[in-house]
C-alpha cells in the first residue's frame, strides 16, 4: 500500500546496490560518477538523465525500468492507464504471481504483556505485532519517539541503519496502524528530526489535521563543521478531525534574570494586562532540558525529558484518558502517564528492564520532578523570581504593582510584600 510513497530513483538505486552487496564507492566507480554525487542521489537529489543512464547501465537495468519502479510512468503509458487503470495492475500481479486481497488481517495473536500496573500495560515486542490487535479509536493521545535512523546502538534487534526509503516505508507501516487507534478528536504527536518530519508531516496530513509544528530547542554545544548547528527537534502535533477533544496548554512564568529577578522582556508596556497565570505557550519550546543527570537517566541510550512528556500529556489529555507510545525507550511516557492519572499502553522491541526497573523503584524521583515542574507553571513569576525581585527592588526600581500577582505562589502582591517585610 505504501511501498512507493517515498521512493525516488535514488532510493531504488540504493536498495538495489545494497541487495547486490555493492558499496557506494564500487557503484560510483563503475558508473563513472563521483561518490559524493551518488550519495547525494541516494539521499534524494534527483539525478540528471546522464547520471541515471550511467547507473542503470552499471546495474544492468533499463533506465526506463528505474524510473518506473520509482513511480514515474512514461506519458504514453500513463494515457493508456487512465483509460483502463486495472490493465497494468492485472498484468503485474499475473507476472509476479502476487495476490492482492485488500485489507489484510493481523497475523498471529497479541503477545502477552511483560509488565503491567493498574493503569498500564507494556509489551516487549515490535509495535507492528501489537498495534493491529488493539481496539480501533480507543486512544486519546498517541505519542511516538521512534529511532531516528542514526545507527544508534539500542541493543539486540537493532535496525537503526536502514536505507532512506526503507526507513520511510517502515515508518508508514506503524504510523498507519497507530492512526487507526486514535479516537476522533484525539492527538497524534510525533517527535523526530526535521529531516524526517518533513516527510511524515506530508504523509500524516492525508488522514489527520496538523495543529502545530513545535520546535523543541535542545542545545548540546557540540562542534559540527560545514553546516549550521542543529539545535532543535521537531514535534508534530496532529488531531483526528477538525477540533481537539482536549487542548489545555500550560502557561509559563515570565522569563527573568536568574540573579536579580528582572524581566528579560518589556511586554510592550502592557504588564498590568498580562494574564496572572503566566505567558502563553508558543510553538518553540526552549525550556526542555536534555536528560544528563544520573538521577533521571534510566538507560545508556538517549532519553526524553519528563518535562516534555508532562507538557504533551497535560496539553492533550485529561485524567482517565488513554495514552499509547509504541517506542517505550526508558519509559518516560509511561511514567508521566502513570503519575498524571492516565491509562497507558506501550511497546518496546529492545530490553524493557530500564522501564520495569523505573516502575519497580516506585517512580519517586519522577514524582518529585513533576511536583517541581507544576510549581513553576501557570504563574506569572516563580517563587524564586519573586524573592529575587524583592531583594533587588530598590536597587533596580522593580515595581510589583505593574502586575496582577493574584495567582502567584505567594498570593496577592500585598501578601507577598508583607510576608517578606
UniProtKB/TrEMBL annotation:
GO biological process, one term: methylation
Domain HTH cro/C1-type: 13-66
Database matches in InterPro entries: Cro/C1-type_HTH, DNA_methylase_N4/N6, DNA_methylase_N6_adenine_CS, Lambda_DNA-bd_dom_sf, N4/N6-MTase_EcoPI_Mod-like, SAM-dependent_MTases_sf
UniProt xrefs under PROSITE patterns: HTH_CROC1 (PS50943), N6_MTASE (PS00092)
SUPFAM superfamilies for this protein: lambda repressor-like DNA-binding domains, S-adenosyl-L-methionine-dependent methyltransferases
Entry keyword Transport: no
Family label: Belongs to the N(4)/N(6)-methyltransferase family.
Name of the protein in question: HTH cro/C1-type domain-containing protein
Species: Halorussus limi
